[in-house]
Specification:
alpha+beta, 2 domains, 6 helices
Length: about 260
């Protein structure tokens, strides 16, 4: 509005002054018209600045800010995407590592379990074998013990026939003791040593006590081996004294063959 008033005042001054107020009139220059055009140009600039230039500049500035903000958001989105990708790759690597570790642990556990099962099976087999052997030995010894009376009767009958006379009961017992449980001679340094006595038939508790008394030991291990036929084999530590009937028969056979 102020610019419009200035323009109107300038136009009025130019109209009132006419040629008399124009110092450049002789040169053909219309000063009032020039002033009016200058004022109009200034007004146009002010008008354009207020209605066009400022809004355009403001729009451009706003657009620039939006572009910068969009670029910044895009940069942040790229960073988030990169972080997500990095985290994803890390999770994949961890999952693969956990899978490999889990597989290794499963395989190790399976191998250990298989080894344990094999060991338990081997132990059980050995236990069954040992039990079967022990049961067989017990059964064999029981059979031998049950047949001892028949064996003794046969031995006594054969002895009576060989000597041509009947033996007294005491003599029969002495012969039986000599045949099945006579301690061989030549045993020394028994004290403190591990003693193992092998007989052809299971010895009774009374016979075992008599053998230990003759050996002067409190403890001894008694074993049964029918192949020795009779007599005793006594092992004292690393020393073996063989008083078995089978050993005597073998010695006699070697003498006869010599």
């Amino acid at each position: 509005m102020e610019t419009l008033a200035i323009v109107q005042a300038v136009s009025r001054v130019a109209a009132e002054g006419g040629a008399a107020g124009n110092p450049f009139g002789n040169l053909g220059v219309n000063t009032a018209l020039i002033l009016a055009q200058i004022v109009n140009f200034v007004f146009l600039l002010v008008f354009l600045n207020g209605l066009v230039i400022k809004p355009v500049l403001a729009s451009l500035d706003s657009r620039r800010k939006r572009i910068d903000e969009s670029l910044d958001n895009a940069r942040k989105a790229d960073e988030r995407l990169a972080n997500v990708e990095k985290d994803y790759q890390a999770r994949i690597a961890q999952a693969e590592s956990d899978a490999v570790k889990s597989r290794s642990e499963v395989l190790a556990a399976a191998a250990a379990e298989a080894q344990r099962i094999r060991a338990d099976a081997g132990t059980e087999v050995e236990r069954i074998k040992a039990q079967a052997h022990a049961d067989a030995v017990i059964e064999r010894n029981q059979l031998l013990a049950d047949s001892r009376n028949q064996i003794v009767a046969l031995v006594m009958a054969a002895t009576n026939k060989l000597v041509g006379e009947s033996l007294t009961e005491s003599r029969q017992k002495a012969l039986i003791n000599d045949f099945f449980s006579k301690v061989p001679e030549g045993i020394s340094s028994v004290e403190g040593a591990n003693v193992v006595v092998t007989s052809a038939l299971p010895l009774s508790a009374r016979e075992q006590n008599r053998v230990k008394t003759e050996l002067s030991v409190a403890n001894a291990d008694f074993e049964v081996d029918p192949t020795i036929l009779g007599g005793l084999i006594v092992r004292v530590g690393d020393k073996i004294v063989d008083g078995s009937i089978s050993n005597k028969v073998n010695s006699l056979r070697q003498q006869l063959n010599a």
